[in-house]
Amino acid sequence: MRRASKNLIEGSVTFLVGLALKLFAGDVETPVVTLTKAGVVLMCIGGIQVASGLLRAKREPTART
User: Fold this and answer.
1) Which site from 12, 22, 37, 40 is most exposed, i.e. has the minimal number of CB atoms within 10 Å?
2) Which domain of life is it from (predicted)?
C-alpha cells in the first residue's frame, strides 16, 4: 500500500472516531479529560492526516508501464 493511501485511510478513520466521540460521548464522565474534547483533537489529527495523504498523492510520481 502506498504511503498516500495509507494516510488517507488512517486520517479518515481517525476523523470518524473523533466525530463519534464528539457526538455521542457528551454524557460520559471521565476524571482526566472530557471525551468531547478528545473527539475534537482526534478530528483535527485526522484532518491533518487526510491533508497529508492528499498532498503526498499529488506529489508522488505516477508509475509508467
Assistant:
1) 37
2) Bacteria
